Amino acid sequence: MKIATFNINGIKARLPRLLEWLEETRPTVACLQEIKTMDEGFPAEEFEKIGYHAIWHGQKSFNGVAILADGTKPVEIQRGLSIDGPKEGEGEQARYLEAEVNGVRICNLYLPNGNPHPGPKFDYKLAWMEKLRARMAQIWAEEVPAVVLGDFNVIPENKDVWSPKAMASDALMQPECRDAYRRFLADGWTDAIDTLNPRGGVWTYWDYQAGAWQRDHGFRIDHLLLSPETADRMVAAGVDKEYRGREKSSDHTPVWVELRD
Question: Coiled-coil intervals in this record (predicted)?
Fold first, then answer.
């Protein structure tokens, strides 16, 4: 069972690249972030043509998450974490979608970026991480096979970025969000990519600016966290780096884990 995460950075703009990746790599489950479309604009029929069924949680112009499953429809468990946006009176943003696929709990998330730091957006990011941790604790208590995955907007350690100095002031690198991420791991969740690449140097994102892709100036912010029931089944995990280099690609690239049945 192959489970993948892919921040697509606009599903309409990247649809040809997304369909290409799905057909070439055929993940069992594909979790998407930043679909950037309202619910009625989601192109579900395009995925059905190649055998994928989807559920999605959209929002106009930004955010938005979706879960695609090969040959079966994801069974929705929960959408949202019941936390309002950083501005007073702002409703909940479309950042979390949870489902069950083939007996595995899939928790797809697009964690707030948190810039500029400091400020209300960074405070919202930390509050969101606390809400996520509480939800993860509930799932843990159920003792079900689970994968919590998506764009966490956290660079966990200095080994996960091309230049710690260049990113030092960014919200992705701040001690507070790094500490919050470490608390997920201390609770017993396994970072799949880090476990198999303990020396780091694995990137999942390259900015469109300043020739970042061509110079390999990237960092790792897309993560897959495994419960004990899934960590015991992990046989491989990796990054589909080549898809970042294709025409009109997302600035992220797919990240995946393979589990024994």
Answer: none
